[in-house]
Amino acid sequence: MPIYVKDWDVVVPGELLAEGDYTAGPYVYKEDNKLFATTIGIVESKRGVIRVVPLQGPYIPKVGDVVIGIVVDYLPTAYVLDINSSYKAILQATEVLPPQKNALTEDLSKYLDAGDALVCKVVRFDRYSDAIVSCKGRELGKVTDGRLIRVNPAKIPRLIGRKGSMINLVKKETGCKIVIGQNGFIWIKGKDPESELLAERVIRKIDEEAHISGLTQRVQLMLQLERRG
Q1: Residue 219: which residues within 8 A CB-CB, separation 6 or more?
Q2: pLDDT of residue 162
Q3: Is 27:15 a contact under the CB 8 Å cutoff?
């Protein structure tokens, strides 16, 4: 059963991926016992299933996703967040207000203002209504400094890399803390504005060149040149 691609290869629509007794996963179709990609993306094979993770397309929430949301509106007892999707996210005010405060009688803007950003986790979503998110938990909560950037959500797997290899490289070489939202919002916090700017430039390079082979080598070279001044 020949397979013509390796995990994390970038493939294009119509590219032959494998032949034989493989199962076609998402964005793959099978014809005459041959499997082909239907979109540009990253190929993965696991337990006989071959799938392609698209490098383009909108963000669709999934339960368990870490996202970064921006406050855009208020409900009587909740905040409405922009999560870079056709869906909004709802954050219950009880997650932010002190325990003794009543969300119905409080001015919610005293606790989170329009434009504030939060790292959250998707706790409920069914495609028929907006996502429900929580900001309680380790590494979750309001973003208070650093810089927030946005990339194509479909490029997030490429930015993370296999077992975190790509983003760990960027973190190590820039010294920045980087929180990746699956929705394409990324928070960068460094020791100074210059390190944050370098991390942003590298991330934007990955976003723009995710579909071109040899990306890791180009990122390494860019970081080496920056270190040399």
Answers
A1: 166, 169, 170, 202, 205, 206
A2: 83
A3: no
Residue with tokens 């803007």: 109
CA 168 to chain centre: 15
At 44, list the tokens: 């993965």
Q: Where do you find CATH 3.30.1370.10 in the chain?
A: 147-227
Which part of the chain has CATH 2.40.50.100? 10-53
Report the C-alpha gap between 166 and 155 in whole angstroms: 12
The CATH fold of domain 10-53: OB fold (Dihydrolipoamide Acetyltransferase, E2P) (2.40.50)
pLDDT tens for residues 142-179? Answer: 998 999 999 999 899 889 988 899 999 999 999 999 99
Burial 46-56 (b: 16+ CB within 10 A, else e): eeeebbbbbbe
CATH 3.30.1370.10 fits 147-227, yes or no: yes
Position of tokens 């860019």? 222
Question: What pTM was computed for the model?
Answer: 0.82
In CATH terms, the superfamily for domain 66-143 is Nucleic acid-binding proteins (2.40.50.140)
Under-70 pLDDT residues of the chain:
229
What phi and psi values does residue 91 have, to the nearest 5 degrees? Answer: -115, 115
Q: Residue 79 burial by CB count (10 A; 0-12/13-18/19+): exposed, middle or buried?
A: buried
